[in-house]
Each structure stands twice: as structure tokens, then as C-alpha cells.
Amino acid sequence: MLSRLAALRVCKKRFAQITRCLAALSVMSSLTACAAVGVVDSPDPLVKLNDAAYLFQKENRPVPAETLIQEAIVIYEKRDDSHGLGNANREYGDFLRSGAVFNWRDAYRRNGFLDRSVTYDNRLEKASEHYSKALEYYRLAETQEIAAGKYDALTNVYYNMALSHFALGARDEACADYDRALQAYNDNMQRNPTARPHGSQAGTVLESIAAAKRGAVCKEEAT
Amino acid sequence: MIQKDQLPLSETYFRMAHQLARFVLTFAFFVVSACSLTTPRQHVHGHSSDFEPNAHPSSFDCDTAAGRYSEVNAAVSAANVRVTGFMQVLTLNTASAWPPDAGVIFAGPSKLPRVGLETFVLPDKPAVLQIAIRGAGRAADHTIFASVPISDLKTPFTLRLSSSGQLALSVGDAATTLSVGPIDFTRMNLYCSSVHIHFSEVQLVSDN
């Protein structure tokens, strides 16, 4: 009877150890699949950029956001993807100017950024450099998309160029880019009448461009 | 077997749970009453407040989550009044449709008109603090007269309201004036929304 009780106790102890071990393993495995706490890792650089934007715009979490943007840049560089590099550089500019970086200023003053050329105090100038860099990549992408006849992608390129110009304070250029986005959209719809382009939170592509132009206070003649 | 001085196990658990519940309720009561004594008024955007003027605040640590609003009021009786003080932005809470916004204004017993200093961050310019003078009209009646990079530096401000309805504003190195007309102002109001901002050394002086 006593030996059976002892055996039962040993069994219970081992079961508890195994359970703890399994729990630790499951936690570790779930963490290794995370880009940051609460962010599922994805190999897609566009997903990384979207996650990063959410983290620094909505979650006040700039540290994992910067990691994701840098990872996206590395992937786009390997792919030699001009449009992607334009997006990543523009977003890095947005990141550097974000309220989240301001909120974490003590940490950034102390530890710096992943891009070691950036400091907390020069971050706004560096943001402008990244917007300019984004525009260079978008110009490359523009040439490629026109050559390939990809007018849907070209619409996005012009739209993103407008955002970069606007971030640099170049309103007239931004408005001209919105008009070119509109033109590229119309060209795409003429060539592909059955196309159903995705819009944005502001609505359809046309509504999004119109909303962006209102936001940039573009002159009506430029429409 | 139940001993004389020992209750059944279920009864013991019941008593323990009862005691725990009493403790939790008492603790919660103290926390709630302490919070209601110490926290400033905080509202969700769009809700009105009853504008009870407090004693003149010399400082106000206005800390609001995204989309929330907090304020403090001080009674104004004189016609020629001047408000001086410092403001320091500490945290921006941008995860909301309501951008970070804070200011120092003169107002009457109603929500409108309210005139004075408004500072805010535009969604497309998140690194820049917009500084505006607020007129006597509706919410959009403001004119941006300076834009400065967001920083946590203490920035001095002065508002001067004359009996003829002339409003003079200065924030840091920027200054402007606006005629707001003769309006019956009864309070000076410090407010913030979606931001943590610290107002300090606030002084309300009559120039009569």
C-alpha cells in the first residue's frame, strides 16, 4: 500500500515536471514565431511595413516597429525592389517623425536607433533624407512600371510620391503627383475595364485621391 | 471526522471567500474615493462639463489618453486680464481620431464662445506642434500663427485680454493679436486631449 502511494507521488511529480516543460516549450515556440510581443512574424516585407506602421502609429511601440522596417528594407534590397524600397524609406521617415519616437525620447537619446547615423536630435533631418531617398526609388519604380505597362502599380507609385513630397513640404509637387495618380488610374481602367482596384480607408481609389488632395489643400484647377 | 473547534471545509472556504470579498470591496471603495478626489475631470470627446471654477491653478498636470479630454477652470472677474505660465509636452497619444490638442482659453459659462491659445498636432505633421489663436466663432475658428518641432522643453506663454476685446498671445518667440469683441468671460480654462502636457507657474493677473 505504502509503495503504491510512493509510486503515485513520484508519478504526480513527474507529470507536473512534464507539464511545466511542455508549457515552457509552447511559450518559447510561440515567442519565436513573433516579430515582437503580440506581433506575428511574417516573411512578407509589406506585412512587416504594415505591422510597423500600426505599432508606431497606434500602439506607441517604436522599438519593434523600427526592427520591422529595417527587416523590410533588407528584403527589398535583396529583391532589388524599387517600389518596396520607396515604401520602406518613406515609412522610416514617418517613423522618425512619429509621436511614438518623441514619447520614447529618453530611450532613443540613451541607446540611439538601429540606423546608427540617426540620433534623437537629428531625426527630423534624417526623416527628410529618407523621404528624398524614397522619391529616388519611386522614380526608378515609375520607369519600370511604365515600361511594363503596369498602370495599377503606377497609380500607387504616384500616390506614394505625393505622400513623400507632402511630407517634405512640397505641396505643389504632391498635388501634381495626385493628378498623375489619377491619370494612371484612368489609364489602367481603360486598359482593364474589368479591374476592381482596392481603395483605402477613405473609400475607392478615386475617393482616396480626392480625400488626399483635400488634405493637401490642392488647388481645384489641378484636378 | 469534524472536531469541535473545526468547521467543515466548505464552511471554511465560504468564510474565507466572504472575508476576501469584504476586503476587496473595502479596498475598491477606498481606491475609487481616493481617485475621485485626486484625478482631474476627464471626459470622452463630445461630452459637456459643468465648468466649475476652481481656485487659480498654479500648475496642472493634464494627462489624457487618446480620445480623452481633461480640463481645469479658474474664475475670471476682471476685464483686463493676463495669464502667464509655461507649458511642456510630455507624451503624445495619437491612437485616436482626435489629435493631441491642448490650450489656455477664456470662456463664459457655456461651452462657446471660447477664445485664446490652442496647440495641436496635425495627423500629417506628427513632429510639429501647431500654435493657433482661437477666435470667438465655432471650433474651426482658429488661425495657426507658429509651428515648432515637438519637444519637451518648457515653453512660456502669455495671454492678454483687454476690456475692448483685444486678445494678445505669445508662445515662445511667436506672438499675435486678434479682436474677439466684448464678451462676458467668467473663467480661464486649461485643457488637454490625447496628450500629456504640464502647465506650470500659471498666474492669472488683473491689469486694471
Task: Walk me through what this model shows.
The complex is a heterodimer of chains A (223) and B (208). With 223 residues, chain A is mostly helical. Chain A has two domains: 96 residues, no CATH class; 75 residues. Helix content of chain A is 74%, strand content 2%. In chain A, a hairpin with a 2-residue loop joins strand 1 and strand 2. Chain B has two domains: 38 residues; 165 residues, Exo-inulinase, domain 1 (Jelly Rolls), CATH 2.60.120. In chain B, strand 10 and strand 11 form a beta hairpin. The radius of gyration of chain B is 23 Å and the shape is globular. The N terminus of chain B is likely disordered. Chains A and B meet through helix 5 of A and loops of B.
Low-confidence stretches of chain A: none
Order of helices and strands of chain A: HEEHHHHHHHHH
CATH architecture of the largest domain in chain B: Sandwich
CATH class call of the largest domain in chain B: Mainly Beta
Question: What is the radius of gyration of chain B?
Answer: 23 Å
Quick one: biggest sheet of chain B? 7 strands, antiparallel
Question: How is the topology of this model organized?
Answer:
The complex is a heterodimer of chains A (223) and B (208).
Chain A: H1 2-32, E1 34-36, E2 39-40, H2 45-57, H3 62-79, H4 82-96, H5 99-103, H6 105-111, H7 123-148, H8 151-167, H9 171-191, H10 205-215
Antiparallel strand pairs in A: 1-2
Helix pairs in contact in A: 2-3, 2-4, 3-4, 4-7, 4-8, 7-8, 8-9, 9-10
Chain B: H1 9-38, E1 41-44, E2 60-63, E3 68-75, E4 81-92, E5 101-107, E6 114-120, E7 128-134, E8 142-149, E9 155-161, E10 166-171, E11 174-179, E12 187-193, E13 195-206
Antiparallel strand pairs in B: 1-3, 2-13, 3-12, 4-9, 4-13, 5-6, 5-12, 6-7, 7-8, 9-10, 10-11
